[in-house]
């Protein structure tokens, strides 16, 4: 396929070719045109993209550290599940090198209508619209040989020119890894896009997941949670799930990297068949353990608060990780109350809580080392803390916590540490914006 066959005009391609590093098209909604000499006017394509994205309530990016872990399968089933729950959903397949969504949804022969500035998505149902590079390729065997800027241009075009209309959810099937394309996707979607990371139980997954979690944190986005795919095997005779890799690995992994564990999906021959034949697994196999596992993963996504309702507090809370079992939660204090200045706190309360029973089981006060850059995250890590609830925290400290796999909830208001943690456990903690003024 020629580079222009994607519909990018040469102008589009070169403008999108501005690397994200140069600040284009990033979270700030910055310049999408060449030059970037600090001009205020938005480039037309950036403006179109902003207008398209404003009509989407929740953006969920499905990522994986590497290919073949079932990322597209999970992304497709999440999109289908949300649509079956009555939500308006767009499924965007930007996996430029392996666009498999058309096959998974039996849409291989679908034709896309394109006019000057608009690309009409393919309707899978009343509630689910789909767009994939696969629709634009002449055949399924055609490899895509594009350089980075062209891929970025193509992704930008899909985000700005597809006429999704008003959506409750956009689910993005992102290329694997933590390279240019996932970076472009995150930066173009903006800071409110949230990641679902798909992994498998194999031993190397921990490093992949940690890398993906760090990547998402570094670009300023939130991880909604981890999905462990191909966890155990469904017996084709009796439907029983055999946990050949042992149980609970995904949950432990999520805990270790400090993010929510959304659930596990077994290796199921029916999933392969549904993918190959393109039938709707969730509709046909509703009662199977695999369908129930997928529905469990979708549940917290359905509970995401409406960002347009103005409830920033609820949104921040929903983005916080769900930990399980016994955890240690650190709360920075001044005069016995949660302080807005994490780095300058007088004391640190380390509250022990049971996430399953939602109870506080203990609390101790420790005196942190004198304030110096980079000291607190290492100190908190040595205390065995899983989660920090803070008023405000600088970006550097936030990044270090992400890298250490310690979750952070920012923007909490005052209160004693036990009150703050109790409210957190009960889902009642009011969380505003990160109040750090340093
Ligand atoms: P990725 O997008 O990570 O490259 P895919 O979603 O394309 O992975 O899945 C790779 C292969 O694994 C496909 O053949 C798919 O049908 C199969 N697969 C994915 N998840 C499961 C599962 N839970 N059970 C059985 N097969 C699966």
Concise synopsis of the structure shown:
The chain has 438 residues and is α/β, with parallel strands linked by helices.
Q: Can you offer a commentary on this structure?
A:
The protein has 438 residues and is α/β, with parallel strands linked by helices. The protein folds into 3 domains: 1-33, no CATH class; 48-304, Rossmann fold, CATH 3.40.50; 326-425, 2-Layer Sandwich (Nucleotidyltransferase, domain 5), CATH 3.30.420.130. 33% of the residues lie in helices and 22% in strands. The chain has helices at 10-16, 44-54, 71-84, 101-104, 148-161, 180-189, 205-218, 249-257, 269-277, 281-284, 289-302, 312-319, 375-382, 395-404, 417-425, and strands spanning 56-64, 89-93, 113-115, 118-120, 122-123, 128-132, 167-173, 194-199, 222-234, 241-242, 261-267, 326-334, 337-338, 347-354, 359-366, 387-389, 407-409. The strands form 3 sheets. Strands 1, 2, 5, 6, 7, 8, 9, 10 and 11 form a 9-stranded mixed sheet that branches. The model is unreliable at 1-40 and 310-320 (pLDDT under 50). The protein binds adenosine-5'-diphosphate (ADP). Adenosine-5'-diphosphate binds at residues 64, 67-73, 98, 100, 229-230, 265, 267-268, 271-272, 275.
